[in-house]
Design brief:
This protein is an alpha+beta fold and 271 residues long. It contains eight helices and ten strands. The chain has helices at 100-104, 106-122, 130-144, 149-163, 212-223, 226-231, 236-254, 261-269; strands spanning 7-8, 14-15, 23-36, 40-47, 51-57, 76-82, 88-97, 186-189, 194-196, 208-210. A hairpin with a 5-residue loop joins strand 6 and strand 7 (88-97). It binds zinc ion (ZN).
Length: 271
Amino acid sequence: MDGDAPVRSGHGCYRDRVPRPRTFTTDAIVLSRFDLGEADRVLTLITPHDGKLKAIAKGVRRPTSRLGGSVEPFAELRVQLAHGRTFDVVTQVSVGHAWLRMRDSLEPAATAWYLAELADRSLEERHPAEPLYLLLRRAYELLDAGMAPGRVARWYEMRLTDELGVRPEVDRCVECDRMLESTDTFRWVPPLGGVLCQREAGPPSDRTGLSLDALKLLKAYQRMDAEGLALLRVPPAVEREVESAMRDFVRIALERDARSLPFLDEVRAGH
Ligand SMILES: [Zn+2]
């Protein structure tokens, strides 16, 4: 039968063709949430095929709620959603991966929040987001498996810049395009997209010196997989240098500061 033709119902009146399903089911990770009204909660979800979307979990803050504790952030969920006018509506949810070890210790949990915020800021609503979904999911697996949170964060930031199409240049000077050599003096210039050699003059205000060891570690983050990175032995000062370099780079790529960073830094200072 032609799907566009009206369908004669048993009652003798004509109806429009059957509309698309009102509900759909997807994997999802809760990136953030806020409370609405007396008992509802609005979730920002990342899903592989429907991208980022906002969904309302009605009555979820009541102790008797059926959805209850399942809609926690930083867990992989299987969610059934009904299309709604303003937000989609969560109708069923089950937990796929809870990543409890990650969520139960402070620094991994604070790092999970930071990574979720970066994903949130990188996505527009309703654009397919499978690579970023898989990246976030993998980062949570690594945190849950006990990889150092700082290593996971740098690994994730570097791959995020790939996804955003702004991977930092660490092999050539961003101005003169010359291959960088170990005898060069390096400066890290995020607004220009990477490393600058000593031949370039100019105001030093937004140009930070970068050590050879830090440059090598940045290259490692581009070339090595997470398993290899987890095994690297690096002096803490070099880790800090690369942390600050990548944070600056990501802040400029996303055009804003991450709100979760002060908390993450506080947690680490308390260790
Ligand atoms: Zn140069």
